[in-house]
Amino acid sequence: MAFETSNDIYAREVVMARVGHLIRRKQKEIERITRVLRGCFDPEQVLAPEPGRIGRIILIGPYARRSWYEDRHTLEFSDYEFWAIVDHPLHTDERCWQRARNIVQREMGNRCAVDLNVLCTADIRAARAERDCFILDRIEAGITLYRASRDAPLHARERRCGR
Prior knowledge:
alpha+beta; four-stranded mixed β-sheet; 6 helices; 6 strands
């Protein structure tokens, strides 16, 4: 079933379907975090030789492995773990991600902890060349929530604000 429309705008259902094994609330939170990361990534914060672009956003960890837990009595829960892969090493700089992190923290509060690790495509190539199991295994076991080569772009009103 295709969720994307002919207008080529971002469809929330696409991300939510990729984590369809989770309860609806978790699907919505993951979709929202993904949209904020995409919309608030600010590559203009660093001087890079090429325009900044997110190539992939991957959900790793317990929510991807289907081993997440949530105990409402003790308030213990699994963290969300996201990896963003960008086109240039300079775009891994914290300044490019600060606004996104702030919005995610403000919206999710203490409901869930969100970890974001940002890698560049050169890091992935090096991991493949060195057979770095830590990185490669997580990418392989993770769920790709966004891939620039296949997913629709954000609508103009969703960029920079993650709405």
